[in-house]
């Protein structure tokens, strides 16, 4: 007798759950991604055809949805203590004396480690499998963020070798500077405010609801303590070595086993100078008594272990002359005051400028012309002015007053209530804002007009060839040819790219217009709800705020933008040139679920379609585009001259590699 539909569904669910568990808990794939996806698709189709057998616990409802709405609070089995701080070698010597006294003169070894500047974490392993990850919280209880921690590649999901049955690893999750800068570059490209520093970004990332987003942040975890009921070794150092063998990235990599406090001091001095060469931030050194027996004897105060001590580095500070304060006008009109300094060496780099952020900061510092100021580099990437050497101030020095007019266009600056920054309201004619709007319009996520970099746009603006985005479509070969650094070929490329942008769908054009507060997602929502720019223009505030995710601020900004005559004329010109300002065939959302649950990445030079088109095809068929090669990637589609991504995918071994034609065949 053949199995019933219900039995088939049940069997598929069990199989998929089994493979999923292997993949996420044990970090291994027992079948190819393709086979896995085929099973999932089969199940999905059966569930659609026989809704009476659907089940909220079915794995089809889990894939790709690593969303945690809120993080449960969990008690720590072993309390997570703070560390006592020391600021100089005298503090350290005092600590050593206290230890010697308690230990009655026993010989003491120390382990000196870097004090990683991130967010602390406690991870439970049972039978070699990552079970649970909890934030420090108040030390007694924290948030359970297991799904997010599992996305961090330096955290092993399954241990290797001869591990203990049940134990906790404590450590720090941080963001290296390169990843931090990359996140900020992306944010700025999308018109979002950059994050302040890697530490806050790391702890913020851990609380994101979508674990797929967490993965993109590229966090690192370094583990610095083994904790359990009893210990498989006698010293902290040995435990770190064991943990390393099990597959952890451990603090031992930058640590030293010291036989005296003076060796510890050497270590501190070394890293105080060298810390700037690391690709991540540290804010000091942690010193721990190596012997676990001695740790036990020393015990804890109400707050921290007596057997450990943090040594905090002083933020480096130098004095230099404030030459003048200038004002930068951003592409959105925001004004940033900048302190121009006599060049000075600080934390390994020559500093010439420091951000002053806003008027309040200048007032608070009470800056005067010709002041000598103290500049510091703390956790933040950009140096800041922390004070003035009043002894050097001349008695007739004038206080520095904040600029009243835009240095670029002369318009009176404004400051909105409740906001710290000034801005230039001359959105349509202030040079950096005009150029900024065009740069935004041609950017990859908007109209994706290749061959038009920001320098070229600035050049076109200077030569009075463009004054707004509609002017791009009026450009002719003979306008561009006489320009500096323009050859026939590059001119033709620009003209072609501009022409091609007329096929870019409405929702992207909406995003490209650069309406304040209208990002990619909002633009998509608007396009979905209003079939054309005219419909959008006719929409009232009330109608706009009906749309999901559109609040009053966004709605007002849309109305203001579209009711402005100059803007509307420009939009009419865009329409006349053939730019998509209404929903066309191509905005149709969904074609099939052929690629459901599958992930794609395109690399190399594509010839049958552009990358944008390819990514759109994936989405329309239910697939997902991801941005890097990892175990989560199912298909890598390679064009000509594919490089490191192809190699990495081949190394991973579970990724299906397709050429462009094979990709198209998938969609049949
Ligand atoms: P504090 O937050 O200043 O009290 O310092 C204590 C914190 O330092 C701990 O909660 C850890 O998150 C962090 N830390 C960073 N690196 C280490 C390390 N190597 N050993 C112990 N704690 C560390
Ligand atoms: Zn201006």
Short description:
The protein contains 24 helices and 22 strands. α22 (611-620) links the parallel β19 and β20.
What does this structure look like?
The protein is of the alpha+beta class and 668 residues long. It folds into 6 domains: 5-62, Orthogonal Bundle (Helix Hairpins), CATH 1.10.287.610; 75-310, DNA ligase/mRNA capping enzyme (D-amino Acid Aminotransferase, Chain A, domain 1), CATH 3.30.470.30; 315-423, Beta Barrel (OB fold (Dihydrolipoamide Acetyltransferase, E2P)); 431-503, Orthogonal Bundle (DNA polymerase, domain 1); 506-577, 5' to 3' exonuclease, C-terminal subdomain (DNA polymerase, domain 1), CATH 1.10.150; 599-667, BRCT domain (Rossmann fold), CATH 3.40.50.10190. 36% of the residues lie in helices and 19% in strands. It is built from 24 helices and 22 strands. The strands form 6 sheets. It has a 5-stranded mixed sheet with strand order 2-11-10-3-9. Helix 22 links the parallel strand 19 (599-603) and strand 20. Helix 1 runs antiparallel to helix 2, helix 12 (431-442) crosses helix 13 and helix 16 crosses helix 17 (520-529). The longest helix has 21 residues, at 5-25. The chain starts with a helix and ends with a helix. Residues 62-66 have low confidence and may be disordered.
**Strand percent estimate:** 15-25%
| CATH topology value of the largest domain | D-amino Acid Aminotransferase, Chain A, domain 1
Q: State the share of residues found in helices, binned by percent.
A: 25-40%
Strand pairing plus helix content: what structural class?
Answer: alpha+beta
Which regions have little confidence, pLDDT < 50, spanning 5+ residues? 62-66
- Mean pLDDT, nearest integer? 89
Strand arrangement across the biggest beta sheet: 2-11-10-3-9
Shape: globular
């Amino acid at each position: 007798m053949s199995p019933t539909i219900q039995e088939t569904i049940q069997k598929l669910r069990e199989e998929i759950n089994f493979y999923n568990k292997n993949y996420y808990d044990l970090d291994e794939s027992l079948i190819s991604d393709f086979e896995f996806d085929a099973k999932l698709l089969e199940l999905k189709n059966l569930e659609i055809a026989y809704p009476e057998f659907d089940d909220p616990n079915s794995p089809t409802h889990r894939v790709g949805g690593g969303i945690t709405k809120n993080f449960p609070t969990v008690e720590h089995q072993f309390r997570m203590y703070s560390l006592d701080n020391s600021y100089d070698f005298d503090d350290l010597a005092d600590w050593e004396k206290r230890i010697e006294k308690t230990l009655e003169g026993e010989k003491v070894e120390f382990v000196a480690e870097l004090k990683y500047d991130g967010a602390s974490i406690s991870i439970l392993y049972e039978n070699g499998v990552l079970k649970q990850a909890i934030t420090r919280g108040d030390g007694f209880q924290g948030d359970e963020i297991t799904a997010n921690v599992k996305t961090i590649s330096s955290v092993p999901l399954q241990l290797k070798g001869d591990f203990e049955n049940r134990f906790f690893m404590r450590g720090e999750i941080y963001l290296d500077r390169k990843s931090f800068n990359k996140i900020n570059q992306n944010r700025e490209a999308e018109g979002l405010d950059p994050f302040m520093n890697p530490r806050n970004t790391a702890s913020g990332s851990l609380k994101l609801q979508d674990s797929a987003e967490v993965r993109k942040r590229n966090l690192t975890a370094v583990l610095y303590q083994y904790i359990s009921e009893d210990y498989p070794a006698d010293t902290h150092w040995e435990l770190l070595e064991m943990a390393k063998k099990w597959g952890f990235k451990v603090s031992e990599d930058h640590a030293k086993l010291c036989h005296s406090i003076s060796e510890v001091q050497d270590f501190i001095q070394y890293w105080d100078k060298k810390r700037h060469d690391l690709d991540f931030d540290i804010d000091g050194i942690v010193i721990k008594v190596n012997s676990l027996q001695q740790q036990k004897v020393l015990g804890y105060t109400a707050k921290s272990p007596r057997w450990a001590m943090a040594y905090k580095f002083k933020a480096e500070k130098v004095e230099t002359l404030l030459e003048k304060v200038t004002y930068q006008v951003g592409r959105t009109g925001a004004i940033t005051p900048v302190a121009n300094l006599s060049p000075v060496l600080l934390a390994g780099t020559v500093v010439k400028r420091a951000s002053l952020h806003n008027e309040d900061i200048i007032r608070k510092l009470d800056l005067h012309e010709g002041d000598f100021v103290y500049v510091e580099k703390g956790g933040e990437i950009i140096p800041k002015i922390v004070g003035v050497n009043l002894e050097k101030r001349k008695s007739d020095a004038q206080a520095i007053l904040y600029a009243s007019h835009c240095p670029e266009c002369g318009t009176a600056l404004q400051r909105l209530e409740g906001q710290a920054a000034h801005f230039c309201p001359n959105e349509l004619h202030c040079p950096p804002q005009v150029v900024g709007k065009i740069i935004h319009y041609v950017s990859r996520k908007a109209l994706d007009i290749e061959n038009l970099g920001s320098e070229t746009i600035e050049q076109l603006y200077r030569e009075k060839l463009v004054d707004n985005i509609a002017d791009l479509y009026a450009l002719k070969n003979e306008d561009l040819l006489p320009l500096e650094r323009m050859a026939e070929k590059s001119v033709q490329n620009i003209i072609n790219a501009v022409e091609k942008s007329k096929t870019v769908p409405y929702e992207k054009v909406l995003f490209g217009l650069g309406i304040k507060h209208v990002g990619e997602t909002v633009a998509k929502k608007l396009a979905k709800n209003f079939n054309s720019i005219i419909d959008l223009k006719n929409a009232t505030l009330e109608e706009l705020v009906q749309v999901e995710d559109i609040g009053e601020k966004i709605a007002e900004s849309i109305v203001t933008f579209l009711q402005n005559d100059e803007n509307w004329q420009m939009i009419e010109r865009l329409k006349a040139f053939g730019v998509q300002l209404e929903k066309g065939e191509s905005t149709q959302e969904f074609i099939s679920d052929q690629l459901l649950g599958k992930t794609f990445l395109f690399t190399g030079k594509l010839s049958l379609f552009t990358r944008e088109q390819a990514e759109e095809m994936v989405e329309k068929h239910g697939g997902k585009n991801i941005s890097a090669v990892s175990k989560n990637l199912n298909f890598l589609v390679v064009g000509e001259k594919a490089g490191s991504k192809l190699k990495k995918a081949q190394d991973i071994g579970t990724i299906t590699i397709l050429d462009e034609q094979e990709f198209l065949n998938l969609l049949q």
